[in-house]
Design brief:
Layout (H helix, E strand, L loop, with lengths): L1 E2 L7 H17 L4 E6 L2 H5 L11 H10 L4 E6 L2 H4 L3 H12 L4 E5 L12 H10 L3 E5 L3 E2 L2 E2 L2 H9 L3 H7 L4 E8 L4 H5 L4 E4 L9 E9 L2 E10 L10 E6 L10 E11 L7 H22 L7
Parallel strand pairs: 1-2, 2-3, 4-5
Antiparallel strand pairs: 6-7, 8-9, 8-13, 9-12, 10-11, 10-13, 11-12
C-alpha cells in the first residue's frame, strides 16, 4: 500500500503507483492507496493550509485510472494528527490494512509533528518483515515534481506547464448557475460556474475541454472579474464551442489546457466582441492540437 495526500495526482505520484502495482502483483494482494480529507495541514495549520488541486473524488478517479485497486479516503481530524508515527503504522498499515509491502516517496512523513520519515518506517517494516520501497522524485526541467510546484503554476496561470507535470489536465468542477446573461447578448453564451472547491487559476482566458454528461466540448474559459463592465468579483465563465442547450443546475467539468491571454478592460463592447471571437478561435486551435494526448479521465 501507499499512504499520502496525492493532491493533484502528478508524475511523481504516478511513479509511486507504478511501483505499488508491481509490489502488489508480486505479493498477490490488492494495490491500495490511503489518502486523507481534508488535507492534514487544514487541521494543523488552518491559516496556512493550501487550497486543494483535486477533490477526494477526482483524486480517487485519477489514482484508479493509474491502476490501483482501491483508494481509501481517511477523514483527517485532530485525533488522527495526534497519533505518534509508531501508532499510525501499527493501527493503519499493519492493523487495518495488514500491509505486506509499503511504497512511498523519499519525502514521506507521518505521525504527530511529522516525526516519522522513511528511515523510521524502514525500521518498522524490517521488524515486521514488510517490504518497503522508497521511490525517488521525478525530475522535470531540473526540479522535482511536487504538488506545491504545481499549485504555484496554477496560481500563476501557467496551466500548460502544470499540465506537463500532471497525469491529467488541471480540472475545475462546478455547478452551472445563472449569471448576468451578458455573454449571450454578445454572441458568446457562457456557463457560469459556482461551488468550486479547488484552487482557481490566475485571472485570464484559457483554452479548455469542458465535459458534461459524457460529452466533451472545446471551450474558451474566462477567470476573473469582467473589467469592461466595471465588475470586481471573480467569476468563472466557460463558452462551450459547438454546444447549444441549457446547462443550469448541472455539474460541468472543465479541464484547463493552456493560457490564451490576460484579462483586460476593453474600450468598447465592439472591441470586446472582436477579442472574444479571437479567443474562441485560439481556444479551438489549442484544444485540437492537444486532443491527441488527452484521455477521458
Amino acid at each position: 500500500m501507499a499512504v499520502g495526500n496525492f493532491d493533484g495526482v502528478h508524475l511523481g505520484h504516478a511513479a509511486i503507483v507504478r511501483r505499488l502495482c508491481q509490489a502488489a502483483a508480486r505479493h498477490g494482494v490488492p494495490a491500495v492507496v490511503l489518502t486523507f480529507d481534508p488535507h492534514p495541514a487544514s487541521i494543523l495549520r488552518p491559516e496556512q493550509a493550501p487550497l486543494p488541486l483535486t477533490t477526494p473524488a477526482r483524486r480517487a478517479d485519477l489514482l484508479l485510472a493509474l491502476g490501483v485497486d482501491a483508494v481509501c479516503v481517511q477523514p483527517a481530524d485532530a485525533a488522527l494528527m495526534a497519533l505518534e508515527a509508531e501508532a499510525f503504522y501499527a493501527d493503519f498499515l499493519r492493523g487495518r490494512f495488514a500491509a505486506r509491502a509499503v511504497v512511498e516517496g523519499q519525502d514521506f512523513r507521518f505521525g504527530a509533528r511529522r516525526r516519522g520519515d522513511v528511515s523510521l518506517l524502514a525500521g518498522l517494516c524490517d521488524r515486521d518483515a514488510v517490504d518497503l520501497e522508497v521511490v525517488p522524485p521525478v525530475i522535470v526541467a531540473g526540479e522535482p515534481v511536487s504538488s506545491s510546484r504545481i499549485r504555484a503554476l496554477v496560481a500563476a496561470g501557467r496551466l500548460g506547464e502544470a499540465r506537463a507535470l500532471l497525469t491529467s489536465p488541471y480540472r475545475l468542477s462546478g455547478e452551472v448557475v445563472v449569471g448576468a446573461r451578458r455573454g449571450a447578448t454578445l454572441g458568446f453564451p457562457t456557463a457560469n460556474l459556482s461551488r468550486i472547491a479547488t484552487l482557481l487559476p490566475a485571472g485570464g482566458v484559457y483554452a479548455a475541454l469542458a465535459r458534461v454528461d459524457g460529452a466533451s466540448f472545446p471551450a474558451a474559459v474566462h477567470v476573473g472579474p469582467n473589467a469592461t463592465f466595471g465588475e470586481t468579483s471573480v467569476s468563472i465563465e466557460a463558452h462551450l464551442i459547438g454546444f447549444a442547450g441549457d446547462l443550469y443546475g448541472r455539474v460541468l467539468d472543465v479541464d484547463f489546457l493552456d493560457r490564451v491571454r490576460d484579462t483586460r478592460r476593453f474600450a468598447s463592447v465592439e472591441d470586446l466582441k472582436a477579442q472574444l471571437a479571437d479567443d474562441v478561435a485560439t481556444a479551438g486551435r489549442l484544444v485540437a492540437a492537444a486532443s491527441s494526448s488527452l484521455g477521458t479521465t
